[in-house]
Amino acid sequence: MRTNFTYTKIALAAIFSLLASSVSAQQKASKVSLPKLSMADILKSSQASDWRVLNPDNTLYLEMEKGRVVIELAPEFAPKNVANIKALVKEGYFDGLAMIRSHDNYVAQWGDPGEKREFKNAAKKVEGEFTVKYKNDAPFTRLPDVDGYAPQVGHVNSFAAARDPKTQTTWLTHCYGAIGVARGNETDSGNGSSLYAVTGHAPRNLDRNITVVGRVMYGIELLSSLPRGTGALGFYEKPEERTLIKSVRIAADVPEAERIKLEVLRTDTANFKALVEAQRNRGGDWYKFAANHIELCNVPIPVRVVK
Amino acid sequence: MRTNFTYTKIALAAIFSLLASSVSAQQKASKVSLPKLSMADILKSSQASDWRVLNPDNTLYLEMEKGRVVIELAPEFAPKNVANIKALVKEGYFDGLAMIRSHDNYVAQWGDPGEKREFKNAAKKVEGEFTVKYKNDAPFTRLPDVDGYAPQVGHVNSFAAARDPKTQTTWLTHCYGAIGVARGNETDSGNGSSLYAVTGHAPRNLDRNITVVGRVMYGIELLSSLPRGTGALGFYEKPEERTLIKSVRIAADVPEAERIKLEVLRTDTANFKALVEAQRNRGGDWYKFAANHIELCNVPIPVRVVK
C-alpha cells in the first residue's frame, strides 16, 4: 500500500503546494516568467556524489504490520545511548513490543507496555547525552537564518543540528522525524528501551533536555498516522489499541536481499545549499511572496530509494 | 472513542513530556526544589473571563464517521473568503464530499473529488486575502520572541497571527491546525470549496501566499491521523481511500442540543501571558535547560469543552 512512498516524494510534492482542483490547463499555459530553480530541478541536477548511502551499522528497521520504518542513528551525537540501543536491538528487546503512545502534534513512542521485559546485555541506566562537545573543525553546514532556540543551526551529515560556540556544544534538534530516548526526571533514567519519534510541529523546547539519537529516514507516515491515544499524554488506554512491533533489526544484520537501499542527500554540498535557497525563496508560478527565510525544521533532507 | 479528547488535554499533556516508563515513585518523591508555575497551574487559576465561547456564527462542524471536527473562522482576516465558505456550507456544498488528500507533515485537504458539484449562491472566484490592513489600535498581543518569517508575531482573538508595520498588514499564520483556502496559480482561483488543515510542522512559507480563514479548535486528530495518500502531493489514488464528509454545518444552524460548547483561552489577558512564559521557560522537575524562547507555533492556545 505504501510501496515507494518516501520522504523524497513528500519533499518533492511539498513544493507544488496547495493546488485547488480548479487549476485549469489555461492557467498553466499562461506561465510567462522564467521561474527560479525549484527543489525538483535541483534534485534532478544532483550527482551521485551528492548522496550518501545510509550506514547499515547505524540503521534500524522497525517492522510493523503495515510496513517498515527506517531510522538512522547518529552515534557522533550520542555514542553511549546509540550503543545501548544497538545492544537492545541485538538482544531482541523490541521484538513483539508495541507502539504505546501517539500524542497528537507531538510524538509517537514505543516500548514495553508491561515494563516487564528483562535486559540481557544492555544497561538499565545510560547517561543523558543532551549535548556533546565539538571541535572547531567539526563539519557543520550552518544556515544563515535566524533561530530562536539556538545560537547556530544547520546540518551535520544529513541531520538537523544546532551549536553553541560559547560552550562548544552541539546537539541534534527536535525536527519532524527526530528520534529521542524517553527518560524520567533523572538525566540518566533513559536507556533507549523506549524511544519516540517527533510527529508534529518541532518541539524545540526539548532540545538540550533529552537525548536525540537519529532520524526516521523512511516510513515516518506509519508513525504519524497512528490513531491518537486517548489517555493522558496520548498513551493508549487499552492493549488492543496498540500497534505491534514485529521486530527491530540493525540493517547490517538483515540479509542483503531483505534490505531497502536508501540514500540521503548530503548536506555539505553546493547542491544542498542550492536546494535550501530554492526552499527559502520558492520558484515557480504559485508563490507570490518570497519568505526570504527558512526555519531549520522546514529544510527538507531528501531520501531516495535506490533500486 | 475520542469523547472529551480536546486540545486542552493535549496541551496540558504536552508539559509533562516524555516520561520513560521507568520513572519510579522514589524519583517523584525526591522533588525538593519549588518548581515554577506550570501551564496546568496557570490554567487552573484562570477565571471565567479568561475564556471566550466560540462564535456559533463563525464555527463550522465538519462531521465524519469517526466524529466531529470543529473549525472557528476568523472573518476579520478574510471577510470575502469566510463569507463564501459560509455560503457554500449553507447550500450544502460539502455534504457527501470527502477528504481528498493527506500529505504527511503538511496538510489534510477536502473537497469534491469529481469537481462536478454545482455552486448555487457561492462565488466561483474569490479574491485572495493573503493579508489584510490593520489599524494602529487593532488588538494584537505581540510575542517578544524573534521570528524569521515575519517582523511581528503574536495573537489576535485566540488566533496566531503576524504583522508587518511597514505595510500595516496582518495575516493568520500557518501553525498546526490552521485552515486555508486551496488555490491554483491565480490569486483569485480559490473559493473555499476545497480547504486544507495544517497537520505537520508549520509551513510558514505559505504565509502571505494563500488565504488562511481560521483554525481547528477540536478534533484535529481526526484529520492528522488520516492515512497518508500515496499519490502525488498526498492525494488519494483510489476513491475507497477517501474519508467521507457526512456534512458541514454552521454551529448556529445546528440545534442547541447537538452543539458542542467550546471555550478557547483568550490571548489578550495576563493569564495568557503567564501561560506563554510557563511554556517559554518550563517549570517542574523534568526540564534541565531553559529555552528562554518560544516559537509562535509552539504557543498552545487551549480549548476546553464546557458541560
UniProtKB/TrEMBL annotation, chains A, B:
Domain PPIase cyclophilin-type positions: 67-250
This protein's record includes keyword Metal-binding: no
Classification via Pfam families: Pro_isomerase
Keywords: Isomerase, Rotamase, Signal
Signal peptide (from-to): 1-25
GO MF term list: isomerase activity
EC number: 5.2.1.8
PANTHER family: PEPTIDYL-PROLYL CIS-TRANS ISOMERASE CYP38, CHLOROPLASTIC (PTHR43246)
Name of the protein described by the UniProt record: peptidylprolyl isomerase
